[in-house]
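Researcher: I'm comparing several assemblies side by side, and this is the next one on my list. It has 237 residues spread over two chains. Same procedure as the others: predict the full complex and return the structure.
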Amino acid sequence: MTQANPATLHIISKSPTHQQLYRDIANALLDDDAILFIEGGVYACCGTEATALLAATNNIYALSIDAQSRGLANTTPAAITLISDQQFVELCCQYHKTLSWF
Amino acid sequence: MPLLCPTGLSPLATEAMKKNILLIFRNPPFANSSNSDTLDIALACSAFELPVSLLFLSDGILQLLNHQQAELLAQKDLRKRLNALAMYDIEDYYVIDQDLIRYQLSVEDLSLACKVITQQQLAALIRQFDTVINL
């Protein structure tokens, strides 16, 4: 099993209203880390927070079903990749570890 | 004449005693049951003909977003009940301009026709009401 990527996948499940949480994440992020928005976290896609986090890393994903169900599928910026549940699992395997923020 | 007149006062007297109520929605959809519970309160108040206003504050505004597909999460779409509020004479809805800006939304993105107020007007709005419920 290849696990070359030492970076971390940060999984965020709360909306940007949790400002301290987003500050903590920004401080905990290295530039080859990835971010995945799930559940209420997908609301970061339609705020200014995604723009700020995109400055820190290019690898930003959002769970498609959570974005779609919340009416955000069309407003998610192109720089954020919408992924399926299957790809969610694959992404977790690609990274050395996952870190959940909630 | 309402069926229930617990105080035994004349309808006119109860009319004068009616408290107006502001209900605050602060949570995004699918987070917990508080938005649904708040909506239950709104309908209960309406059954007793109490004047109710709704404020969608902070993440509560996200409850109103169009194009939601709750069935993907096997959840209930609260908007169907929200859209029925007008039938219960609940037609006074507020959102804060900063919350719209924050999520890059306009009033057209919302499923209810809300009045947009500023953050400075929020305190004055709350002051207008006898009772404010914030779950």
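Model: For your comparison table: Chain A touches chain B through 19 residues (CB under 8 Å).
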